Amino acid sequence: MATVGYGDAKPVTAFGKLVATATSICGIIVLAFPISMIVEKFATAQQKAIEDEQLHQAQVSAAANNYLLRRFPTRRRIRRDRANGTTANPLVKTVA
């Protein structure tokens, strides 16, 4: 960042060394800001992808639970049907 050429020429005077130091610090700053912004964008995109995947998994689980709750009878319904002797489920024996 601060060198030019092959390094065969270097600052000798105090002012030259000061300018070289200031140039190298400015070069580091100029490169650090865009790199940090790029890394932040990647981290934000990765976090959003993780949150989207978690939301999708939650939606799939909710849909599966909803299906199961609607498909299978509740304990209260099973007890009521057994007591009445009217069951729609062929796997449950009715008490006669």
From TrEMBL:
Question: Which keywords does the record carry?
Answer: Ion channel, Ion transport, Membrane, Transmembrane, Transmembrane helix, Transport
Give a single Pfam family match: Ion_trans_2
InterPro entries, alphabetized:
K_chnl_dom, VG_K_chnl
Q: Where are the transmembrane segments?
A: 18-39
Molecular function per GO: delayed rectifier potassium channel activity
User: Boundaries of each Potassium channel domain copy?
Assistant: 1-42
Q: Its Gene Ontology biological processes?
A: action potential
Tell me where it resides.
Membrane
Annotated membrane topology: Multi-pass membrane protein
Q: A cellular component term (GO) from this record?
A: voltage-gated potassium channel complex
Q: Which PANTHER family match?
A: BTB DOMAIN-CONTAINING PROTEIN, VOLTAGE-GATED POTASSIUM CHANNEL
Record's protein name: Potassium channel domain-containing protein
Q: Which species is the source of this protein?
A: Ancylostoma ceylanicum
